[in-house]
Amino acid sequence: MTPLNHTHSDLLAGKVVLVTGASSGIGAAAARVFSREGATVVLAARREDRLAELTGDIRAKGAEAGYVVCDVTRPGDAARAVAYAETRYGRLDAAFNNAGIGGDRTPLHLMGDDVYDTVMDVNVRGIWNCLRPEIAAMLRHGGGAIVNNSSVAGLVAIPAAAPYIAAKHAVVGLTRAAADEYAQQGIRVNAVAPGTTRSEITEDWFRRNPGLERTVNSMTPQGRTAAPEEIAAAAAWLLSDRCPFLTGTVLPVDGGFVNQ
């Protein structure tokens, strides 16, 4: 069972926060959690119908939200999302670069080039495309905080997912590089490394691989998968002012998986 409750502590009060991949899974959960924590949220994803619905739900609860249809593999789309935040709300204080895909569960020697290209394009180039305009905006406005969504697969290997593992390790590298480069300019860059989390990606994996869910749970000390809100809560803390001396960190949110 998930131990989270839904109380809030205004961790992100007054902050303008961009969330990519916001139409489902961890991204949608982050939009809701961040707004409950006091943030104005700018939601970016490819599916406008879902973005519009989620934005409406957040506004109905009394928070401020806007959205931009955005494909993070296109540099212009990522720049447009940041520009929307600056134009509509005056600045960008924080960003959760969450958009990503899972790829196939196939042995490396059988993996197609198309799978490798797509996984790397979304999971690595997508974050690269977002980091550049986000950092530029934060430099214009005196600093900020960024959290990239990696994975436990960015810290250890898991079977039959070579491109995904390579991509998520690359996210860790980009996080550390950006954190080092902009630490003295008021920008903190960290990453979360989720364990198996309930999302459309993982549900699809479980459907296509009977028995996988039971295997994954048996490998996790807490014996379960995470709720998306649990990952979002960790990202909210990393984006907040509660940890000003924390940068370049990759935080496992994994029920103890990498601690074994």
What brief labels describe this structure?
alpha/beta; Rossmann fold; seven-stranded parallel β-sheet; 7 strands
Word description of this protein:
GO terms for molecular function: oxidoreductase activity. InterPro entries: KR_dom, NAD(P)-bd_dom_sf, SDR_fam. By secondary structure, the protein is an alpha/beta fold. It has one domain (16-195, 228-254): 3-Layer(aba) Sandwich (Rossmann fold), CATH 3.40.50.720. The protein is built from eight helices and seven strands; from the N terminus they run E-H-E-H-E-H-E-H-E-H-E-H-H-H-E. The protein has a seven-stranded parallel sheet, sandwiched between helices. Helix 5 links the parallel strand 5 (144-149) and strand 6. Helix 1 crosses helix 8, helix 3 packs parallel to helix 4 and helix 4 (113-140) runs parallel beside helix 5 (162-182). It is globular, with a radius of gyration of 17 Å. The chain starts with 15 loop residues before the first strand and ends in a 7-residue tail after the last strand.
Describe the secondary-structure layout.
Layout: E1 16-20, H1 25-36, E2 40-45, H2 48-60, E3 65-69, H3 75-89, E4 94-97, H4 113-140, E5 144-149, H5 162-182, E6 187-194, H6 200-208, H7 212-218, H8 228-239, E7 250-253
Parallel strand pairs: 1-2, 1-4, 2-3, 4-5, 5-6, 6-7
Helix pairs in contact: 1-8, 3-4, 4-5
